[in-house]
Specification:
The protein is an alpha/beta fold and 823 residues long. 36% of the residues lie in helices and 17% in strands. The strands form 6 sheets. Strands 2-1-3-4-5-6-7 form a 7-stranded mixed sheet, covered by helices on one side. It has a 5-stranded antiparallel sheet with strand order 14-13-12-15-16. Strands 8-11-9-10 form a 4-stranded antiparallel sheet, sandwiched between helices. Helix 22 crosses helix 24, helix 23 (556-572) packs antiparallel against helix 24 (577-603) and helix 24 runs antiparallel to helix 26. The termini are far apart. The mean pLDDT is 91.
Length: 823
Amino acid sequence: MSKPLLYLLAGNGSAADWWEDAIPHFQHYQVQALELPGFGDNPEPPCADLADYAQALLRLTRPGQAILAVGVNALIVLHALQRRPGHFSRSVLLAPVGAFLWQRRLPALMSPLPLRKGIHWLLSHKPHWFAHKFSVQRWTPAQYRRMGEGYRRCRAFVPYWDQLRADTALPLLEWITDPVELVWGDQDQVLGIAQAAAWSAILARADLRISLQAGWGHYPWIDAPATFAAWLESGPEGFVAHTKGGRLRLAELAGQPVPKALTLADSADPRLPPLLASAPNALWAVRSSSYGEDQADAANAGLSTTYLRVPSDQVAARVRQLRSEGVEEVVVQRFITPLVSGIAFVRHLAVEVEWLEGHLEALADGQATPQRATLSRLGPAWRSGEFQALQGLTATALWRFLQGVLKAFHYVPGDVEWAWDGQQLWLLQYRPISEHGWRRHLTSANIAEILPPQPSRFVEYGQRRAAASIPAIMARWDSRVLQDNEPFTAVFGGASYINNDLFLARLSDWGISAANYSGEVGGATPALPWRPLRLLRSLPRLWRMQRSARAHLQNLAPGLQRFDQELAQLRADGADGQQLADWFCRFYVFVVQGNLCIATALASSGGALLGRPPTAYDNLQNSPHRLPWETDPGTPRPALTDLPLQPLPAWPASITLAHRLGLPGLRGYYLQVREWYRDNLMRIFFRLHHAMPEAQRAHWFGPHPQVRSRDGSFWQDGSQGSEQATGFMIYPGQVQGILGQDILLEDSLDPGRHAEYQAARAVIARMGGRLSHGSTLLRELRKPSAVLPQVGSEWLGCEVLLHDGELRLVAAHGAGLATPRAS
């Protein structure tokens, strides 16, 4: 019987011979050391990005085998699993790289190219100078030479640091469901176990186990190869991460104040008596830690009984009782007698907290009504209630404590149980939030212009899965977006809306009025005033934002080509609906990130003084890919025809130079790029629609059950905003006719209705932004048009006059109605 295969993949700078000490010690596995392109003796050039490395890893490995990977290449394994679930039968990742990249010193240190090349030379020629980083042990001269030779041959070392960025490291990893084993050594001088809590939040749905190995450094297969091989062959070890007990242990490893606790599967566990003996007069809490509780998509809280104030001599009996009820694990935790306790729903921008004097059990039993407050960084509109100092606990102390817990779990919003004993705050429990109605500002503006009120299951699936990954690209100019960890879209009433908080948080930090944002995308926002001092401090960041956004435009064409080729391959392989939907999630992240960079370039373009070249709307003849609700791949399409991607518009040399220098006046050219981008996206959507197998179209292209029913802007907690969207003129002109016939009245502008807009004498929309695709189309058509939020349906069928954005009623029976006009 042949042995199972185990792939060995070390980190940046590695070569296959780094594993020579360990390979002879494997008994159960047949092992194969891997070298990715640009590493060791692999003749292929270094890959362009992490996605290419993931594809290369999939090509180099056979499905159904095990892998052990280290450091940054452990991250590549996760990207491979995200692309091809189940590809590896077992994934063991040693000290993975990817968490807190924007806060770690080493990536910042390696940012300057000369310094990076210098360190590469030193690692290659003087590896013994880094001995204290490699290991707490002293290696032989031959081992140091081997390490240096690996670095010397690694052509990927220098460019890898450019590709390993906070905005590209972690997209969509929260959807991995494979078994993953993470391991750290307590002597690791590069990456420590404190990151384990962050990784449990990043891999929120993986079947995750975590190990801490005493005495291990960053290279345990060199320090103690026989012990390392024996540990690896002993099978999955470590504790289950996604349980109540697992998260408490992770929080403790991350330095959070957790009452002394132990997670048990057996009342006879030899660790229990020493724990009880450590505090003989203490009382204990005995709680379930079921595998089905506190998961990322289902809280399932309260499935089992919790026992409080349990004396030491009764703890074992309570453990047996919970185990007899089918609970997989039991947490025994020292009972804290609180003066104040509470529950908090925590995100970086805001904390929604409930509290009472005494213990939380009074709240759970319905015997007490808690006090409530919402604390927020953004401003008065986001706050409610007030937390008054109580029993020595202040709002500031509570905020700092809760934000510390949040940071430990990589800023992923969580539900925190806490207690104040008069001296300090204690973390009693952390769980991911599966569903919560935040005091968060949402809008249907923009999304209503590109997706129907009831989109297909296909597009809603991609939109929800991509929502948390999309904003990362903004970290290229402001890393605080990663701490905010706000999704691009959020759910209200089962339907997706644009999350205004994502953008308003940045404006607040930059000192920019929110009116600029609402005017460009449409809708209305809570008040955020100009703050001149903040704006002055933010000027370098805004300059970096402009440069980063403009530079990203060059990545659009090759990115479209790559995804188009991937789709063609999927279709050739006979991909099913699920495979297409998972591919669409990655594509959706790329699509919206590109749009965010284009929008940023537009916002900082400084007008169109350098000209307005024609856009893709200049020629929409023979365009079967452009139709109403064209952004939903589930929208019915004409028969498949050959629609190759169009090249990026060529600019005159003077415009290219102005673009690179960051000069103003380029709005017209950035609009040209945006509409070229959208037109090519619709070509890919056209092919994607036809790639879906006929038998699965009814499911994937059928309507999503929930309808997007809220218009305009509102709070996610259900309260209606008091802000009123403003109107504006899109294109000047005077037209008289019947509203709804000669003059179209649209809820929102859909560029796929270009034929209807071309046939109409004028167009009015109740919602839209100055820079929307629909507004661009109407300007291109030179069609008199305006956005007028106050136009009511009672005017339909009446004769009206539209004059430069102002609408007047001509028919006498409407004389008493207000006159909507653009601002």
